[in-house]
């Protein structure tokens, strides 16, 4: 009886989520279909990097090769312990549009990346600001199409979902699952609905007007949020500003992590944050993911006919939604659905691991700096 009730509830959720995604994805434009910019307002690209000497040269070179020319770059070396600073200075010597900031110490009450992006903004001159990461690769038309789309729709904020590339099989499966969960949980297409309160921001590509960035309070307002990219998008919608999210599968690419172990480690800083550092929400999420995305794969073989049928219908809607998200938000094979229960268990493990380590350490360790749980919770309540 309990299984019938649980499977019935999850079936209702998957039916509603599938309908919601069908409608939502129709409103999610592809940046590849946008025209280039007719006018070229000054675009300030701000890249914050810590210990990124292996990636930043290639990333910045793809940016320097853009067809959109009215651009300046502010590269911020955030207390790097490798050759990142030297690499930035070498890049500066190749193009007069590049400026470099070296940060030697971190002020109290700031996360390193947030502080670095804010310091970069203070040096920027453009009407448009683009916050991006040091490992993002760009097609030559990316900036032009983004600015063209931005101007055409009179936006205050544009964020783009890049192609998250991955090589190892289980890393592909895990990234696909993460994007699947992000899509049905965060419903990013709501960013395109001016009546919706939900906003979205993606760290690989967050473009804003200077006035919008200042109106939402800049990174100073979210200086202790490890999910700063998402929070920027949320603040834009709270202020009633105009936001759009688009996909850019062939224009913007980032290798999020190189191994599954790196992915699990990288998620330590923000999975618990996404649940507001509440153990109750962690337990609820673990229970929800297990019941909705693991259990049906096993109960479909139940001897109880009602349980088996409900499980099969759950899996059918789950498969439709998974394939829909995978085709729209990734370049991975939809056949990764076959390992969904295992990637769901991996996600549960990563969530429990991140929560446990955060509690044990009394905070998070991000880019070599520890931030206490008390500080993080205080900023979350704010």
Structure report:
By secondary structure, the chain is an alpha/beta fold. It folds into 2 domains: 2-24 and 264-381, no CATH class; 28-257, Spore Coat Polysaccharide Biosynthesis Protein SpsA, Chain A (Alpha-Beta Complex). The chain is built from 15 helices and 10 strands. It has helices at residues 2-26, 56-64, 84-92, 112-123, 142-152, 169-186, 210-215, 228-238, 260-266, 271-274, 279-293, 295-299, 305-329, 340-361, 373-381, and strands at 43-49, 71-78, 98-103, 128-132, 136-138, 157-165, 206-209, 243-255, 363-366, 369-372. The protein has an 8-stranded mixed β-sheet with strand order 3-2-1-4-7-6-8-5, sandwiched between helices. Strands 9-10 form a two-stranded antiparallel sheet. Helix 1 (2-26) runs parallel beside helix 13 (305-329), helix 6 (169-186) crosses helix 14 and helix 11 (279-293) runs antiparallel to helix 14 (340-361). The mean pLDDT is 91.
How are the secondary structure elements laid out?
Blueprint: H1 2-26, E1 43-49, H2 56-64, E2 71-78, H3 84-92, E3 98-103, H4 112-123, E4 128-132, E5 136-138, H5 142-152, E6 157-165, H6 169-186, E7 206-209, H7 210-215, H8 228-238, E8 243-255, H9 260-266, H10 271-274, H11 279-293, H12 295-299, H13 305-329, H14 340-361, E9 363-366, E10 369-372, H15 373-381
Parallel strand pairs: 1-2, 1-4, 2-3, 6-8
Antiparallel strand pairs: 4-7, 5-8, 6-7, 9-10
């Amino acid at each position: 009886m309990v299984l019938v009730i649980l499977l019935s509830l999850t079936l209702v959720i998957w039916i509603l989520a599938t309908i919601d995604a069908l409608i939502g994805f129709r409103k999610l434009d592809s940046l590849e279909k946008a025209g280039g910019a007719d006018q070229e307002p000054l675009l300030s690209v701000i890249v914050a990097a810590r210990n990124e000497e292996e990636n930043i040269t290639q990333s910045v070179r793809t940016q320097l090769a853009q067809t959109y020319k009215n651009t300046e770059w502010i590269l911020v070396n955030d207390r790097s312990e490798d050759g990142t600073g030297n690499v930035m200075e070498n890049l500066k010597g190749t193009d007069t549009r590049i400026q470099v900031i070296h940060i030697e110490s971190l002020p109290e009450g700031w996360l390193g990346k947030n502080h670095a992006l804010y310091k970069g903004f203070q040096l920027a001159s453009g009407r448009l600001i683009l916050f991006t990461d040091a490992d993002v690769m760009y097609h030559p038309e990316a900036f032009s199409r983004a600015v063209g789309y931005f101007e055409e729709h009179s936006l205050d904020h544009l964020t783009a979902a890049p192609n998250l590339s991955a090589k190892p099989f289980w890393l592909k499966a895990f990234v696909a699952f993460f994007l699947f969960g992000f899509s049905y949980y965060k419903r990013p297409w709501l960013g395109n609905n001016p009546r919706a309160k939900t906003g979205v921001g993606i760290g690989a590509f967050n473009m804003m007007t200077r006035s919008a960035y200042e109106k939402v309070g800049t990174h100073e307002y979210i200086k202790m949020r490890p999910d700063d990219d998402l929070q920027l998008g949320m603040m834009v919608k709270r202020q009633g500003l105009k936001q759009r999210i688009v996909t850019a599968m062939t224009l913007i690419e980032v290798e999020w992590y190189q191994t599954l172990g790196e992915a699990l480690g990288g998620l330590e800083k923000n999975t618990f944050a996404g649940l507001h550092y509440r153990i109750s929400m962690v337990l609820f999420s673990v229970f929800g993911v297990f019941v909705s995305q693991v259990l049906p794969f096993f109960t479909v073989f139940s001897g109880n006919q009602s349980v088996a049928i409900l499980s099969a219908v759950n899996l059918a809607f789950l498969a439709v939604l998974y394939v829909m998200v995978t085709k729209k938000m990734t370049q991975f094979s939809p056949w990764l659905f076959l390992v969904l229960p295992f990637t769901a268990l991996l996600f549960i493990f990563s969530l429990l691991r991140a929560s446990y380590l955060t509690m044990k350490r009394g905070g998070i360790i991000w880019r070599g700096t520890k931030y206490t749980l008390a500080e993080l919770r205080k900023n979350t309540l704010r």
